[in-house]
Amino acid sequence: MLPAAYRLRSGRDIAATVRGGRRAGRRTLVVHLAVDAEPLPPRAAFVVSRAVGGAVVRNTVTRRLRPLVAARLPGLPAGSRLVVRALPPAAQADSATLETDLAAALDRLAGTGGRR
Fold it and tell me: In what order do the strands lie in the sheet with 43-48?
């Protein structure tokens, strides 16, 4: 579980991050990142739609992603808003694949700025 201070809860904040943030996609997920000037801790949210699978599958994917994101949050700048959107292949992916895709997406966003 992510500590409360690191959770992005507002639907408005999630939508603004997806619409206005930088984006990097991989086979199993798409990562959206927006950085505000506010001195808040980095916050994260997950979007796992019905296209990924039923409720059990969606919860399993979220449970696999949560510790991976929690480990990477301290490395993000203050004011970061991160939305991790799982794609249908995430349902069959193991945790190592999800970790590789998340790391590659975040490295791309940190290094090259990502494309919109």
Answer: 22-25, 29-35, 80-86, 43-48
